[in-house]
Design goal:
The protein has helices at about 10-25, 25-45, 50-75, 90-130, 135-145, 145-165, 170-175, 180-195, 195-225, 230-255; strands at about 1-5, 255-260. With about 270 residues, the protein is mainly alpha-helical. The protein is globular and about 55 Å long.
C-alpha cells in the first residue's frame, strides 16, 4: 500500500463519515460494541490471564470494527464474525496479528507498571474513597490534588497516546496490506506523522462533539427542571460516541493509504 497525504480538513470528514455509517446500521454497530464490552468484562474477571488476553485482542478488535464499517459501506449487515475475520487471512497474517497483540499487551503492561510505580498509593487511596460510597466532593479534592496522582495520570495518558500512534493503522496494514508486524508498526507511525494535521483535526472534532453534547444536554435538562437526568443521558450517549469512534477508524485508514492499483479502499464524500 502507498501512503497518501490528506489535507487537515479531512479529519472532520472522518468523524462525519463515522456518524453517517453508524446511522446506516445503528443496531448492528451497537450490538458489536456491546459484544466487545461484555467480552472485555468477562476477560477482566479471569485474573491474571484474562487481562493479558484482553490487551492482546484490542488491536484485532479495532480491526474488526474497520471490517464492519467496510461491510456497511458495501450494503451488508456487520455481524459478530468481523471480530474473527482478522484470523482468517492465512498463516502469515495470523502470525503478524498475534505478534501485534503480544507486543501491545507487553507495552500496556509496562505502562501500567510505570504508572503504578509513580502514583500507585495515590490511585489506591482514590479508589478506596470512591468504593466506600461515602465520598464527597470535599473529601475527594485533596486526593485529586495529590501531585503523585496527577503525575501518574499524565504519564499514563502520555504513554498510551504515544502507543496509539504505531497501532493506529498497523492491524489494517497487516490485514489489507499484508505487511509484517514490525513493518506495519513503522508505516503506521509514518502515516500518522505525515497526516498529523488531519488526525489533530479529527481529535479536535471529537472533542467538539462531546463538548457540544455536554452543553446542550445540560441546557435542555436545566430548562426542563431535571438537571439530575444529565448523568442518565450521558451513559447511552457515551456508548454511542464510542461506537461511532470505532466505526470511523476505517475512514482514517482508507483515506491515508491507496492500493497498488491506485484506488482508495473506499472513496470518501467531500
Amino acid at each position: 500500500m502507498k501512503l497518501q497525504l490528506v489535507p487537515a480538513r479531512r479529519g472532520a470528514l472522518w468523524v462525519r463519515s463515522g456518524f453517517r455509517i453508524f446511522f446506516r446500521r445503528p443496531l448492528a454497530f451497537c450490538a458489536l460494541f456491546i459484544i466487545y464490552l461484555v467480552a472485555a468484562q468477562l476477560l477482566m474477571l479471569l485474573w491474571p490471564i484474562g487481562p493479558a488476553l484482553l490487551f492482546m485482542i484490542v488491536p484485532m478488535a479495532s480491526l474488526g470494527f474497520m471490517i464492519a464499517t467496510r461491510m456497511a459501506l458495501e450494503g451488508r449487515v456487520p455481524l459478530p464474525s468481523v471480530f474473527v475475520e482478522p484470523l482468517r487471512g492465512g498463516a502469515a497474517r495470523l502470525r503478524a496479528q498475534i505478534q501485534l497483540g503480544l507486543v501491545y499487551a507487553a507495552a500496556v503492561g509496562t505502562i501500567i507498571w510505570l504508572t503504578d510505580t509513580v502514583g500507585g498509593p495515590a490511585f489506591d487511596a482514590l479508589q478506596q474513597a470512591v468504593a466506600s460510597g461515602k465520598a464527597t466532593p470535599e473529601s475527594l479534592t485533596p486526593l485529586l490534588a495529590d501531585p503523585t496522582l496527577q503525575a501518574g495520570m499524565l504519564l499514563f495518558l502520555g504513554l498510551t497516546s504515544a502507543l496509539s500512534v504505531p497501532y493506529w493503522h498497523a492491524p489494517a496494514l497487516v490485514h489489507w496490506g499484508e505487511q509484517g508486524w514490525a513493518k506495519a508498526l513503522f508505516f503506521s507511525t509514518v502515516a500518522c506523522w505525515r497526516n498529523k494535521g488531519a488526525l489533530s483535526v479529527y481529535a479536535l472534532t471529537w472533542g467538539g462533539v462531546i463538548l457540544l453534547f455536554a452543553v446542550l444536554s445540560n441546557l435542555v435538562f436545566a430548562l426542563l427542571g431535571q438537571p439530575q437526568l444529565v448523568l442518565i443521558a450521558a451513559t447511552p450517549a457515551a456508548l454511542m460516541f464510542s461506537t461511532v469512534f470505532y466505526a470511523s477508524l476505517y475512514f482514517t485508514f482508507a483515506d491515508c493509504f491507496i492500493q497498488p492499483s491506485g484506488d482508495t479502499l473506499e472513496p470518501l464524500e467531500p
